[in-house]
Amino acid sequence: MAGNPFKDQDNSDLFADDPFRDSSINSALQNGNSARHLIDDDSDAVPLHPVRRSEDEGGFFSGMGRVGFGSAYSPIGAGADAKDDGSDQTTRNAYSNNSKLADGDRSYLKPSGNYPADSREAELRQREEALEARERELLAREAHVQSMASGVRPALNFPPLYPVMYHSIDIEVPIGDRRTVRTIFYLWLALEALLVFNCVACLVVMISGGKDLSNTGATFGSSFVYLFTISAGSFFLWYRPVYNAYMKDSSMFFYLFFVFNGFHILFDAYMAVGVPSAGSAGMIIMLQSLSSGKKAAGVLCGISFSLWALHFLASLFMYRKVRKHYSARGHTFAEAKQQAYAGFAQSGAGQAAVSTAAGAYIRSNTGNF
Questions:
Q1: Does the pLDDT at position 227 exceed 50?
Q2: Burial category of 40 from C-beta neighbours within 10 Å (exposed 0-12, middle 13-18, buried 19 and up)
Q3: Which of 70, 126, 132, 137 is exposed most, by the fewest CB atoms within 10 A?
Q4: Are residues 187 and 282 in the same domain?
Q5: Average pLDDT estimate for 247-267
Q6: Any idea which of 58-67, 261-270, 300-309 has the lowest mean pLDDT?
Q7: Are 270 and 283 in contact (CB under 8 A)?
Q8: In whole angstroms, how far apart are CA 123 and each of 12, 119, 127, 134?
Q9: What is the pTM assigned to this prediction?
Q10: Averaged confidence pLDDT in the chain
Q11: Amino acid 201: pLDDT
Q12: Are residues 185 and 322 both part of a single domain?
């Protein structure tokens, strides 16, 4: 087979053998009227594309691999060069249909807009919808409670095993104060667990019976009593008052919390010290157990001492936080006394006392006449 007549003999000039550079054609192109006619009348013109050096060296069949069998013929280099230039939209579409994996073609990587949303965004959207639904539920429950008649409360729900009162931070406490009240409630629950652990540690100390330990029976007995007295007293004397204080924005309940929670903070410090016969497995009992060689009792007392110290610090922190809230709200001691007098007068005991005093006064004045 004869060589390719269109193949360049000298690679220095790609268009050295271009037949369109004939002198007759160049003279026709230099004619002004003919040039204008050729330039203006381009309805039947076929766009020419530059031939790549690699395809030029490979000959006519070098571009056959880029065109699928049965497809229309496209000029050599039309697919890639026209796509890069962006001037011939029709050629670019034809090329993309024939070869989706052509060099530089990344259309198959672009999302069409019909794919599902990213999994992380979908998860965040679901969480947001769940939180909004939860908030709507809480607002509805709060509105239901507020719409009830005065003096009417929902069903009792606390404590769980033997409910004697209604307790719901998410409904009765304002939204901005729920975190503070819930933290104090967790501190109260931690106190209950700490009292149980302290009682167990005192029991181990009593059973171990070290020579440097004395009155271990009294220590255990006191710790057992604390399980009931301190539990009930802490709930009704400082937790329930701070719950009512935030719920009703009452100065009187804030003062009750300040007084009795202050005693509770001192009680935490007292239990951390671990005075013998005082019902505490604190630092002193820990040292006595270790000096007697009772390692198990010493370890339990050391844990008890650490927990009492942590509870002391946490209670002190929350005490100061409630104090700042009290000052920011503008409550005063005079307001607390006024609320205490009004509450006592409205209570059954106050009304009975007023009735008794009024009857005694009337009888005394009647007897004078």
A1: yes
A2: exposed
A3: 70
A4: yes
A5: 94
A6: 58-67
A7: no
A8: 62, 6, 6, 16
A9: 0.57
A10: 74
A11: 94
A12: yes
The domain in which residue 89 lies consists of: 49-105
The amino acid present at 308, given as its one-letter code, is W
Spatial distance between the Cα atoms of 225 and 279, rounded to a whole number of angstroms: 8
* Lookup: tokens for 11: 């690679």
User: Are 300 and 215 found together in one domain?
Assistant: yes
Closest by CA position to 258, among listed 178, 182, 171, 336: 336
Non-local CB neighbours of 68 within 8 Å, separated by 6+ positions: 98, 99
Distance of alpha carbon 346 from alpha carbon 68, whole angstroms: 97
**Residue 295 forms part of a structural domain:** yes
Read off the tokens for 69.
Answer: 């069998």
Structure tokens at 196: 């149980």
> What is the total residue count of the chain?
369
Select from 205, 209, 212, 210 the least CA-distant residue to 279: 205
Domain count of the fold of the chain? 2
Q: Do 186 and 317 belong to one domain? A: yes
Residue 31 forms part of a structural domain: no
**Alpha helices for the chain (secondary structure H):** 23-30, 32-40, 53-58, 78-85, 89-98, 119-147, 169-172, 178-208, 216-234, 240-248, 251-273, 283-291, 295-329, 333-346, 348-367
Whether 101 and 182 map to the same domain: the answer is no
pLDDT band at 292 (very low <50, low <70, confident <90, very high): confident
Same domain, 185 and 299: yes
Between 209 and 260, the more confident residue is: 260
- Residue 198 and residue 291 in one domain: yes
Q: How many Cα atoms sit within 13 Å of 95 on the Cβ side? A: 28
Nearest C-alpha neighbor of 339 from the set 237, 235, 255, 242: 255
Question: Residue 344: inside a domain, yes or no?
Answer: no
**Residue finishing a domain among 89, 105, 121:** 105
Task: Specify if 143 maps to a domain.
Answer: no
Query: What confidence tier does 300 reach under pLDDT thresholds 50, 70, 90?
Result: very high
DSSP line for 31-78: SHHHHHHHHH--TTPPPP-PPPHHHHHH-GGGGGGGS-TTSPP--TTH
